[in-house]
Amino acid sequence: METVTKRTTCSRDCPDACGLLVDIRSNEIIGLRGDPDHPVTRGFLCFRTSRFPSIQTAKNRVSTALVRSGTGFESVALDEALDLVAARLTRIRAESGPAAIFHYRSGGSLGLLKQVADRFFEAFGPCTTKIGDICSGAGEAAQLADFGRCDSNDFFDLAHSANVLIWGKNPFVSNVHLVPLLRQARERGAGLTLIDPVHHRGASLCDRYVQPRPGSDLELAFAVARVLVDRGAVDPSRCENAEEFLARVQAHDVPAWAALADVPVPHVEAIADALQNGPTAILVGWGMQRRERGGAIVRALDALSALSGNLFVPGGGCSFYYQRRGAFAPIHTGAAARHVREPMFGADVLAAQDPPIRAIWVTAGNPVAMLPDSQRVAEAFDRTEFVVVVDPLMTDTARRADVVLPCPTMLEDDDLLGAFGHHWISESRPVLDPPPGVVHELELFQRLASRVGLGDEFAGSVDDWKRKLLANVAKDGLDLETLRENGGAARPTHIPETALGSDAIPTPSGKVELITAVPPPPPVDEEFPLWLFSNSSKDSQSSVWSTEPFDYLPVTVHPDVAAAAGVAAGDVAVLESRVGAIEVVVDTSADQRHDVAIVPKGGHFDRGQAANSLVEARTTDIGLGGAYLDCHVRLRPA
Ligand SMILES: Nc1nc2c(c(=O)[nH]1)N[C@H]1C(S)=C(S)[C@@H](COP(=O)(O)OP(=O)(O)OC[C@H]3O[C@@H](n4cnc5c(=O)[nH]c(N)nc54)[C@H](O)[C@@H]3O)O[C@H]1N2
Ligand SMILES: Nc1nc2c(c(=O)[nH]1)N[C@H]1C(S)=C(S)[C@@H](COP(=O)(O)OP(=O)(O)OC[C@H]3O[C@@H](n4cnc5c(=O)[nH]c(N)nc54)[C@H](O)[C@@H]3O)O[C@H]1N2
Ligand code: SF4
Ligand SMILES: [Mo]
Fold it and tell me: Do 607 and 478 share a structural domain?
């Protein structure tokens, strides 16, 4: 058989949205690599996706519809499963109203066509849906409040930067295509600083590494602002509330702010030097906004960028998120009967009344493993009368379903993508045939819709729906055909290179709104003295691992912390918080702080290896994010 090379786009929940080249023979992957012609991908892939062929053939691949039978599942034909689902959902709606049905969609695929699921549950109800965003909610709300818009300077704008502040970001693990740009900047002579309580490989890219107390970036930013104020190096002309903000900054002197952040004063001064000698880009990571003060922390960085003048210039910016998914025309309205707060999933589902939640449908998510307080989330599923999960893999959540519906993997899928780490939009095309009987999710909903009298709402081919989604970029001369001619990826031209340049800031005042209410730092918990960092791992995409399952979730602590707990590297120990305990295997690193414990963010709940078994469900100050990282734990011998 002949080997053919096909092109598609990675749809994983990742900032990079890579172009992929896949060599296929007899519907099998012979080779998989990054597209050298894609401007961001530049021919290389992350570790986890370079191992994607193992997921295609994984033991937990769901390749037929599954219907609960006792404690296990029975394989059935897809149409039989859809008959059952249509009958149960229709009955629950008739008896309790559409609010009794909760549709939860997460980011397992960033494909724009996944919105077809949202559209179905709107047309069928509107039903109950989620509100908030555990991934980026607080940071987006912060930038909307400050800038009236949450978008970033162009990905390649770093070429104009004199300095880059990598603030709470781990590019080698979770944003790998940023690494070559950072290297180039360094080679050009730009100053690079990493600010992260956790020491990681990113430090090797930088000429300075600052290791603050977890969650104290607000105090660090105020320390830097105080240095700039003392030097007369702030320009409040494009800022609202400047007087109040600067009064807050002057509440403490530099050493006092620096002590609150546990950062040496020379490091604070070096960050101020960078901001004074710009253009200086602040690359705002996602981790630190997953805290109770997460919104306030991002607002403090926004203020630093604006007051130092770096926000408005090429090579500067305070870049957190790229709104490229926003470049597409929505295919649903967002109507809902009521909302479940995403970070409070377990509690809200269990507490829902009038009507209670009787059915949950999950699209592209594994909430049992990935939402805070896994035990409560699992209990919510266990207590719900009827659960449907659509996933290409068997997961902690799918195991709790009454019906599991299969769907294509990203190499079998056909969709449009917009990244959250750069401005390119692109197309994904199926490079492999799915297992027999597994259909595109559009077709899945078309078949379901025709069973409940909504067939007309969902008519049309995948390409027809792609064309609807692309309506917003017609003004850039982009349509499906030009996208295909471009090798599947294009950058809409209407998006500015500098997110907030010389135009008025789109806030009510036309200026950057500076934060004025400054919440206090989270209290230290004497009994649980370690901050739990559940960070991205190079080996997994959230709960989807590209490597063999481990026996115990690994935890990294400082060797002194291990010794004080009476354990050593390689030992099995217990990591516990006020809400749960898991067995872990200990690793030590003298590069880490004495108040941190670091685990991968995605584990397996049913194997007793989910970080979220330890994480209390709490919301962030704004944006209904999940305060995953304000989690206090202790280590003890098993
Ligand atoms: N390999 C891999 N890549 C991924 C993912 C994955 O699961 N695996 N997930 C993807 C997803 S869903 C997302 S949203 C993105 C981003 O995903 P994130 O989960 O934000 O990425 P992380 O690599 O965990 O980087 C967060 C960094 O923030 C730091 N941090 C935490 N708290 C603080 C703090 O208080 N102050 C400071 N200064 N830093 C802090 C952490 O130590 C860590 O280094 O990555 C995507 N990329
Ligand atoms: N402790 C802790 N928890 C965290 C975080 C943290 O930093 N710490 N980070 C949070 C963040 S940033 C995020 S974004 C969430 C991620 O949370 P989830 O989105 O729930 O994460 P995944 O484990 O990737 O689950 C996605 C599921 O979608 C499936 N899938 C893949 N492609 C498709 C498809 O095309 N269609 C369908 N129907 N399914 C598909 C995958 O097989 C997988 O089971 O986790 C959050 N949880
Ligand atoms: S997961 Fe991210 S870095 Fe890896 S191939 Fe996909 S888009 Fe690229
Ligand atoms: Mo995320």
Answer: no
**22 Cα: distance to centroid of ligand 1 (angstroms):** 28
Which pLDDT score is estimated for 1?
79
Q: Measured between alpha carbons, how far is residue 104 from residues 109, 185, 193, 232 in Å?
A: 13, 41, 39, 50
Query: Which residues constitute the domain of residue 583?
Result: 530-637
Q: Whose CA is nearest to atom 42 of ligand 1?
A: 198
Q: At what angle do helices 254-261 and 265-276 cross, to 10 degrees?
A: 110
Among candidate residues 600, 621, 6, 39, the one with its CA nearest the CA of residue 295: 621
Instruction: Give tens-digit pLDDT for 387-425.
Output: 999 999 999 999 999 999 999 999 999 999 998 999 999
In terms of C-beta density within 10 A (0-12 exposed, 13-18 middle, 19 or more buried), how is residue 54 classed?
exposed
Ligand 1 nearest atom to the CA of residue 598, by list position: 42
pLDDT value of position 503: 85
Short-list 416, 410, 409, 423, CA closest to 488: 416
| Collapsed DSSP state (helix, strand, coil) of residue 48 | helix
Q: Name every protein residue with a CB atom under 6 angstroms from any ligand 2 atom.
A: 13, 106-109, 134-135, 290, 363-367, 370, 390-393, 395, 407, 410, 413, 534, 541-544, 601-602, 611-612, 615, 628
The answer to whether residues 176 and 146 belong to one domain is yes
CATH number of domain containing 558: 2.40.40.20
Question: For residue 70, what are the contacts with CB-CB under 8 A and spacing of at least 6?
Answer: none
Q: Are residues 370 and 295 in the same domain?
A: no
Task: Judge whether 90 lies within some domain.
Answer: yes
- DSSP 8-state assignment for residue 423: S
Q: Is 18 inside a domain boundary? A: no
Q: Which residues surround ligand 4, an ion (CB under 5 A)?
A: 135
With the most atoms of ligand 3 within 8 angstroms of its CB, the residue from 7, 8, 10, 35 to mutate is 10
Name the domain boundary from 466, 490, 514.
490
Q: Answer yes or no: do 453 and 566 share one domain.
A: no
Domain total for the chain? 3
Closest Cα to atom 6, ligand 3: which residue?
10
Q: Which of 42-56, 100-114, 246-260, 320-334 has the lowest mean pLDDT?
A: 320-334
**Residue nearest atom 46 of ligand 1, based on CA coordinates:** 14
pTM of the model: 0.98
